[in-house]
């Protein structure tokens, strides 16, 4: 599997200081929710992100993924 573009929405607002824990993803928090958006190298990295969210006690509301085009995949 190549890189995936993904968006994960969670309950609660994570501060930007947590961005370092989710390398390659941007955090946007508002209205009691946080959206993590970016690309993941593989399923192992995805599982790591979910594990970190679980460890923080955050609930995942939604997850959307899309395969990235080959040109983006090669550049990442």
Notes on the protein architecture:
With 76 residues, the protein is α+β, with helices and mostly antiparallel strands. Helices cover 25% and strands 39% of the residues. The chain contains two helices and four strands. Strands 2-3-1-4 form a four-stranded antiparallel β-sheet, with helices on one face. A hairpin with a 2-residue loop joins strand 2 and strand 3. The longest helix is centred in the middle third of the chain and has 13 residues. It is globular. 14% of the residues are buried.
Spell the H/E element sequence. EEEHEH
Radius of gyration: 12 Å
Task: Estimate what percentage of residues fall within beta strands.
Answer: 35-45%
**Major sheet attributes:** 4 strands, antiparallel
Shape, per Cα inertia axes: globular
Give, in spatial order, the strands making up the sheet with the most strands.
2-3-1-4
Can you lay out the helices and strands and say which pair or pack?
Elements: E1 4-11, E2 25-30, E3 33-40, H1 43-55, E4 60-67, H2 70-75
Antiparallel strand pairs: 1-3, 1-4, 2-3
Write a brief caption for the model.
The chain is of the alpha+beta class and 76 residues long. The chain has helices at 43-55, 70-75, and strands at residues 4-11, 25-30, 33-40, 60-67.
Keywords:
76 residues; four-stranded antiparallel sheet
């Amino acid at each position: 599997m190549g890189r995936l573009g993904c968006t994960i929405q969670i309950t609660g607002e994570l501060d930007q200081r947590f961005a370092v824990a989710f390398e390659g993803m941007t955090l946007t928090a508002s209205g009691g929710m946080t959206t993590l958006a970016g690309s993941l190298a593989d399923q192992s990295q995805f599982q790591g992100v979910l594990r970190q969210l679980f460890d923080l006690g955050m609930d995942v509301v939604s997850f959307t993924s899309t395969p990235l085009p080959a040109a983006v995949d090669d550049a990442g």
